[in-house]
What does this fold into?
Amino acid sequence: MSDRICVGAIAGAFGVSGEVRLKSFCTQPEDIASYGPLMSEDGTRQFRITLTRPVAGGLGARIAGVATKDDADALRGTGLFVDRAKLPSLPDDEFYHADLIGLEVRDPGGALIGKVAAIHNHGAGDILEISAPGHKSALLLPFTKAIVPNVDLAARRLVADLPEGLD
It folds into this structure.
């Protein structure tokens, strides 16, 4: 498990005075501002953010030291990370996406299906992208109790009951 968790990303400039549009990956989007300075993935840069307002597709924010549209545009695509220790503990049936990526995926009988390559959410719930040997493309599975009845982070695996036609 990673020591840093991605809690958001800078989507680009918002306006002409250095304000940025943030995409927050937090359950409550505004929580992104409560973790203190955020950092780049490699930890070499820190970002002190102040939320300004909700905007289409995210949150408006000011970042200390970013004063122009060009400065804000230069940060487009930058992931915003926080140390795992600053994040709240989760209930047993909830997981940070970063903890699921890389888990082995097995069927209920124990046969290897593949590994979790990514997690997507387009508004209707989380979708697991499974890289599966023997399949031409990735398997996309809804991350629901019915499809994924067991997640064992300690053993680095989950059980997936594939819908008919995917096996």
